[in-house]
Specification:
The complex is a heterodimer. Helix content of chain A is about 35%, strand content about 20%. By secondary structure, chain A is α/β, with parallel strands linked by helices. The longest helix of chain A has 18 residues. Chain A is elongated and about 70 Å long. By secondary structure, chain B is of the alpha/beta class. Chain B has two domains: about 290 residues, NagB/RpiA/CoA transferase-like (Rossmann fold); about 70 residues, no CATH class. In chain B, about 50% of the residues lie in helices and about 10% in strands. Chain B has 23 helices and twelve strands. In chain B, helix 15 packs parallel to helix 19. The chains are: A alpha/beta, B alpha/beta. The interface between A and B is large, with 85 and 108 residues. Strand 9 of chain A pairs antiparallel with strand 9 of chain B.
């Protein structure tokens, strides 16, 4: 921070405190804020996603399909490559696929298919990519993806067709459950560099409110739920 | 540097807008699209009213403790390897962004949609410094080509028809074959996607706004549908986040509450397609993402709104529902308001940020129908706040002489009930007789503002007060 912005910082905080008639050191205010940050109380959580796990997986599928994702269940991780190959073939897409270094994806039997795999981030030349989701949210059919070499963020946005694998056990009812899982993995108050909450394929309504898919991000979002 | 306001010419702007056939056609799409979709989304969520209460209370809590949450947020950004810059004014904010660009020798800047960028006039500042600034949101890209400013906070090109977009693309994209077909929105989108893809990949710096800044984790959040904001922030070496100070939210759980009301109120989606949480720059082992992460915190008059009757305006989460449901916005569109923020929220915020002397027409351009307040996700009493501005305008003798004169004539009679009853009784009888034949007036002295556009129904000869008394006796 340069000197000029540190003067601005002091001025802005000073103005806020003058307007609020506070000093910033009042014990009750400081403790209310510290408490809220430490306890992160939850707001109202819609009943829609508060179901048993099997029903949450069903709701996740319904909601994701409602916002134009395609969703398929497979019994085990062994079945994923065949499902991906089928999806690409039936959509008349080339049999290519880019992925990060996620060990869960790497362990799948890709050699059983004719897919040409490449690894790493996208530079914009890839038509198809596959990622492994961190979690799913039944309430809105949303996927949560976390950045890293395992699942590079560029794969979520540059390719035309994005395939996302999610373990059924990682599907939760609501956003709050995803925050709880992130805190378990990262520690309270810590975050991965990027968390992408993705709800359907890219879209735009900027021309005469006509809803069009594939604005800048993927035109197709295909979700593969692994049941085992 | 900031966009020069034309708010003082609101009346002329509005007359022009009412006579613009393209604008009137485009406004029809906004009206039908947003309002029906919001209603459908709200109908699907029984907890919506409870969430709106929670969102209001949460934002009030933030505003009462804004200093403390800002300090905590700053500390967390720094701990995650990011930089925080504080800007009192638009000029300071632009200078900070230019300095960041200069330090990296940047030539091109891609931009996600940001109203703060509009407020500080960043594109002009970048271009003056010799940098290429490219808007990447489809609507923002269209209006950048047209040399215009957004007419709506979430649908920046809401005033443009597809035929106009086609004409702009043909005018600017001269490298493409002239015989190409561009008649439907899909072909226009495909063309913009292709052109902007190259810009994304070539940019040195990416600038986005922020819907929320999370104090718990030092995270900035953008909410978009197109994915342009994400391509803007993950591809260049530097990501700059522009945000005003009231965007702070305490925790991730609080963010969930606001996310549940934001997209529903804005576009009628349960969730926007991309909600992206960014915390600091590229980490060890990452293969993509920005090497530098900067946040510019802008005040620009907001700290002075705290503790005043306009503090509630700082709860605004920029969903646009108030303008989508406003009969005045629906009639004249966003440009008539003459500055960055249109519609009811703009009519309250603009006088706070640029002065009521510049924008006194805006809080007067309201029917006080109350639809804006009835759909606001954080329950801002927009009509009440517009009324406060009218009061301030009157106190500061900024109202036009005819309005002040008219009010003092009315006040003279209102303080003398006998005289008031006599005068209104005579006036009603005279008007009743004069208008008896036609039942309405097509012209009235001193009321041309009314009768130029619609007929004035003729009174039926009695005042409300005399009818009331007559009924009381019966």
């Amino acid at each position: 921070m340069s000197t000029s912005t540190s003067t601005s910082r002091a001025d802005i905080l000073g103005n806020i405190r003058r307007s609020l008639h506070v000093t910033g050191t009042e014990r009750p205010r400081v403790s209310v804020v510290a408490e809220r940050l430490a306890q992160s109380p939850q707001g109202p959580i819609p009943a829609r996603g508060q179901l048993d796990h099997e029903a949450q997986v069903e709701l996740f599928k319904q909601e994701a399909e409602r916002i134009f994702a395609s969703v398929v269940d497979v019994a085990s991780v062994q079945d994923v490559p065949a499902e991906v190959a089928r999806f690409l073939r039936e959509a008349n897409l080339p049999a290519t696929l880019r992925m990060g270094s996620d060990p869960r994806l790497a362990a799948m039997p890709w050699t059983d298919t004719a897919l040409a795999l490449t690894q790493g981030r996208s530079d914009g030349d890839d038509l198809n990519a596959i990622s492994h989701a961190f979690a799913g949210i039944a309430e809105t059919g949303t996927l949560a993806l976390v950045s890293g070499a395992d699942n590079p963020t560029t794969l979520n946005f540059l390719p035309d067709n994005h395939i996302v694998v999610i373990a059924a056990k990682d599907i939760t009812g609501d956003l709050e459950s995803v925050w709880a899982r992130l805190r378990t993995f990262q520690g309270k108050g810590e975050m991965p560099r990027t968390v992408n909450l993705i709800t359907g394929p890219s879209r735009s309504g900027d021309i005469e409110q006509t809803m069009l898919l594939g604005a800048h991000g993927p035109r197709r979002l295909h979700i593969v739920i692994v049941r085992d | 540097m900031t966009l020069h306001p034309t708010s003082p010419q609101f009346k002329d702007n509005a007359h022009g807008a009412l006579r613009d056939p393209n604008l009137q056609k485009a406004l029809g799409f906004v009206r039908r699209g947003f309002t029906t979709r919001r209603a459908a989304a709200v109908a699907r969520l029984p907890e919506m009213e409870e969430l709106r209460d929670a969102a209001r209370d949460l934002k009030n809590h933030v505003l009462a403790n804004l200093d403390l949450y800002l300090e905590r947020y700053e500390a967390k950004v720094i701990a995650s390897g990011g930089h925080v810059h504080w800007a009192r004014t638009s000029e300071e904010a632009c200078a900070i962004v230019l300095e960041i660009c200069k330090a990296r020798g940047a030539k091109s800047v891609t931009k996600g949609k940001s109203m703060i960028s509009e407020e500080i006039g960043l594109n002009d500042a970048l271009e003056k410094a010799g940098l290429e600034a490219v808007e990447t949101d489809l609507g923002e890209y269209i209006i950048q080509l047209r040399g215009e400013h957004p007419s709506h906070i979430i649908a920046p090109a809401g005033h443009v028809t597809r035929e106009q977009v086609e004409a702009d693309f043909r005018r600017v994209h001269t490298d493409l074959p002239s015989e190409r077909v561009l008649t439907d929105p899909a072909s226009l989108l495909a063309e913009a996607r292709g052109i902007l893809r190259e810009k994304f990949l070539a940019a040195d710096v990416g600038v986005t706004g922020a819907n929320f800044l999370v104090a718990e984790t030092g995270t900035s959040i953008i909410v978009t549908n197109e994915g342009n904001g994400d391509l803007t922030q993950i591809l260049p070496k530097v990501h700059v986040v522009l945000a005003s100070i009231e965007k702070i939210v305490p925790t991730l759980d609080d963010t969930a509450t606001l996310l549940r009301v934001l997209a529903r109120s804005a576009t009628g989606q349960d969730m926007s397609v991309y909600t992206t949480l960014s915390t600091g720059p590229r980490r060890a082992g990452d293969v993509d993402g920005p090497e530098e992460y900067h946040v510019v915190l802008l005040d620009n008059g907001r700290s002075a709104m705290l503790g005043t009757e306009f503090e509630e305006m700082l709860r605004c989460i920029r969903c646009g529902a108030c303008m989508n449901h406003c009969p005045v916005y629906d009639a004249v569109g966003g440009h008539a308001y003459g500055w960055v923020y249109p519609g009811p929220m703009g009519s309250v915020l603009t006088p706070s940020l640029i002065g009521v002397d510049q924008s006194g027409h805006l809080p007067n351009a309201s029917t006080f129908c109350g639809r804006c307040e009835s759909v606001c996700p954080v329950r801002i009493p927009l009509p009440k706040l517009m009324r406060h501005w009218r009061e301030r305008e009157f106190e500061r003798h900024l109202s036009p002489a005819t309005v002040r004169g008219g009010l003092s004539v009315w006040a003279f009679f209102a303080r003398r009930p006998m005289l008031y009853r006599l005068a209104t009784g005579v006036a009603m009888r005279v008007l009743g007789l004069a208008g008896k034949a036609k039942g309405h007036f097509t012209k009235l002295p001193l009321a041309g503002g009314w009768t130029d556009y619609r007929d004035m129904p003729a009174p039926q000869g009695q005042t409300f007060q005399s009818q009331w008394r007559a009924r009381g006796r019966a």
